[in-house]
Fold:
Amino acid sequence: MLGPLIVLILKTAFGILLISLVARFLAQIARADVRNPLAMTVLQITDPVLKPMRRIIPGLGGLDLASLLCIWIGQFILGCLIFAAMGVNPMALVGQLVVWSLLGVAGILLTVLQWSMIIVAIGSWIAMGQQNPLLGFLGQLVEPFVGPFRRLNLNIGMLDLSYIIAFLVLIILRDFILGGMILPQTGYSTVGGISPILGL
Structure:
């Protein structure tokens, strides 16, 4: 009976950390404004984990490899804890968990991008030109992904088709390629109907 409750607590705690790590990884790529209140919150959440890791794992070509490694480790630990909470021995699934956690890094990156684009699209329509720290930060996070599509000049009047196409590409990458083609090849399965890896 306590298993699902423990899983909910684990997913909430790890979700906050992992999503913050993803946001920090994307913010570094986008060179987002660190003075933004949301960016400062992300820094405060992730600094205790990232600062020690960065002493060991340097960046590469502008990519924050320490953040990616922390996300992978976090997904692996979360998967082990969820299986244990549901009465399954995680040691029997270590090999699969390593692979699932690696795919989970891609899954949670794509999920955060997808939801950020949704929030920016809806929020921009509601805010109607008003400055908003949340929308400003999320807009910066998605711009490196959306930017190449904008350069295609796919505007029809006030409708920006480039944003829609970028969103469709995300869905294809996450739901069809990662979830529909790659993940089934790894034997990925839920435990008690609960996904042990965030973003998958």
Summary: The chain is about 70% helix and 0% strand. The chain has a mean pLDDT of 90.
